[in-house]
Amino acid sequence: MNPKNLKSTKSFKGFPCTHRQWKAESHCRFVHGYSREFHFEFEASELTQEGWVVDFGGLKEIKEWLNQTFDHTFLVSQDDPYLEQFKKMDKDGIIQLRVLPNPGMEGTAMYVYQEASKILRKLYGNRAWISLVKVSENENNSAIFTSDKI
Fold first, then answer.
1. Half-sphere exposure of 47 (CA within 13 A, CB side)
2. Could you tell me which of 115, 124, 68, 69 has the C-alpha nearest to residue 133?
3. 22 near 31, Cβ under 8 Å?
């Protein structure tokens, strides 16, 4: 069996966080929150000795990183004009600030792909990789980032 024909998936749900899109001319410029979900697809050049693309039980570090980054946190863009005020709120214990290149769905999908890929590389080297990350803020809105690795 060719492992290139196999994918495995893992979803992580229930990450309540807030963010704002300060550049938006709509209501999205205000601080608002969602319970985010993350869906990963994995591929591999060869299977593990157990016949797996990845060991789901071995993805704890990715889940821990997701918890640290998105569970009850406030996501803000690195160029938000109120960043210093948000940093003060974080220092004062009012929010748990996380600064991202872009806290929207598209930016979050790219960011999660990059960071989770680093963790997966530590576990598997180049044998397995993330081929897709889907980030949802609710049942209607999501963004997908796909890897160009073949």
1. 12
2. 115
3. no
Determine contact, residues 131/113, Cβ cutoff 8 Å.
no
Q: Which helix (H) or strand (E) holds 34?
A: strand 32-44
Type and span of the H or E element at 100: strand 97-100
**Which residues sit opposite 8 in a β-bridge?**
42
The H-assigned helical ranges of the chain are 60-70, 83-91, 105-124
Mean pLDDT (the chain, rounded)? 94
Per-residue pLDDT tens over the stretch 31-76 = 999 999 999 999 999 999 999 999 999 999 999 999 999 999 999 9
SS3 content of the chain, % helix, strand, coil (to 5): 35, 30, 35
Going along the chain from its start, the domains and CATH numbers come out as 7-146 (3.30.479.10)
- Kindly report the pTM of this predicted structure: 0.92
Rounded to the nearest 5°, which phi and psi values hold at 57? -65, -20
Which one, of 131, 122, 29, lies nearest residue 80 by Cα?
A: 29
- pLDDT of the residue at 3: 61
Which pairs with CB-CB distance under 8 Å and at least 24 residues apart come from 85-93?
none
